[in-house]
């Protein structure tokens, strides 16, 4: 009788191997650009995070005072600024795409 025993898989599984696959190493590697973008995003978000964190601290009526005096104007100005930026950026994007790719003039035949 020959020994035909089935090999038992490692309970730790293939994830805990000492050598990782090239695909896994490629996805875990972080480029300098990623670090730079992450740092810039953190610096941009820092003022917002500070303001949001102040909401949870005792304020001695500062938020009530801001809401009664200037908060409406600040929110209105922020919304108008956002709409203006979106409008200008969208317009410039559409215009430059229209000039770069002449799909609207019929030069590109899709059929």
Descriptive overview:
The protein is mainly α. It folds into 2 domains: 19-57; 59-111. It is 62% helix and 0% strand. The protein is built from 4 helices and no strands. It is flat. The model has no long low-confidence stretch (mean pLDDT 79). Keywords: Membrane, Transmembrane, Transmembrane helix. It comes from Roseospira visakhapatnamensis. This is ABC-type Fe3+ transport system permease subunit. The chain crosses the membrane at residues 33-57, 77-98.
Task: Break the fold down into its secondary structure elements and pairings.
Layout: H1 22-28, H2 32-55, H3 62-69, H4 71-100
Classify the beta-strand content into a percent band.
Answer: under 5%
- Topology pattern, helix = H, strand = E: HHHH
Secondary structure tally: strands:
0
**Termini Cα gap:** 69 Å
Structural class: mainly alpha
- What are the segments in which pLDDT stays under 50 over at least 5 consecutive residues? none
Q: Count the domains.
A: 2
Largest sheet: none
Average pLDDT taken over every residue: 79
Count of runs of 4 or more consecutive helical residues: 4
Shape field = flat
Percent helix range: 55-70%
Transmembrane segments: 33-57, 77-98
Keywords: Membrane, Transmembrane, Transmembrane helix
Protein name: ABC-type Fe3+ transport system permease subunit
Organism: Roseospira visakhapatnamensis
